[in-house]
Amino acid sequence: MAFKFTRCPENPIIWPGKWDWRMSNAYNPAAIYEDGRFYLYERTAGSLRPHHCYVGLLESKDGVHFRHMYDKPVLSPEMVGYPYGSVQDPRVVKIEDTYYMTFAFRRFAWNISPTGLGVPEASQGQFPGFDPSTDKNQTRSGIAISMDRVHWEFLGWATPEDIDDRDVILFPEKISGRFALLRRPIGFVDTDTGHSEEHPSICISYSPDL
User: Fold this and answer.
1) CA gap 140, 45 in Å, rounded
2) Cα-atom radius of gyration of the chain, to the nearest Å?
3) Which of 50, 67, 123, 197 is most buried, with most CB under 10 Å away?
4) Is-cis flag, bond preceding 77, omega within 30?
5) How confident is the model over 116-164, as pLDDT tens digits?
6) Which residue has the higher pLDDT, 137 or 172?
7) How far apart are CA 126 and CA 107, in angstroms?
8) In CATH, which superfamily holds the domain spanning 20-155?
9) 3-class SS of residue 103
């Protein structure tokens, strides 16, 4: 089967602004199509320094022209229990009658400085209760659930806190009665990031209950 992808001529279809929690960035969205509408879960930030990230919700009839459904994030660091943190890179699937959002998370947001060459420079911001140990602010992945695509509740962590593990996504159906999850357990904080057997690029995990 061959696929041909064409870039939408109206790009960008979303851009930052309007509210304080999305003034500097709107990117890395998840999308789900249901009931004749596209639902887009955007990663946003109100500033670069500190770069606290949130998840906002938009909808569209045609997949190009989106409008926000709410003026507040549907997922925030506070909802996960860490007001100085950052929720990032959502992915959304529906399994049976429940919606699942996997997301990356840091306890303490970083500061971001664009370089004009691609990946920005980053430095750790200082916050009350901040622990400078490199293993205390690695990226962890979490799961939130919803019954209506809109109101989300933090369910729990999908990965351990002692390793850098992000970009996780659930398969949209169970496999042999178990949830299946793709993970990227690579230590980007103060560790070797080589893609080798010691630091695999992608792993798969299974769980009977999440």
Assistant:
1) 18
2) 17
3) 50
4) no
5) 887 788 888 889 988 877 777 889 999 999 999 999 999 999 998 888 8
6) 172
7) 12
8) Glycosyl hydrolase domain; family 43 (2.115.10.20)
9) strand
Write the single-letter amino acid at 2: A
Sign of the dihedral through C-alpha 185, 203, 182, 179: negative
Task: List for the chain the helix, strand, coil content (%; round to 5).
Answer: 5, 40, 55
- Which pTM does this prediction carry? 0.90
95: closest CA among 203, 168, 175?
175
Q: Are 124 and 145 in contact (CB under 8 A)?
A: no
Ranges of each domain in the chain: 20-155
Contact 46, 20 (CB under 8 A): yes
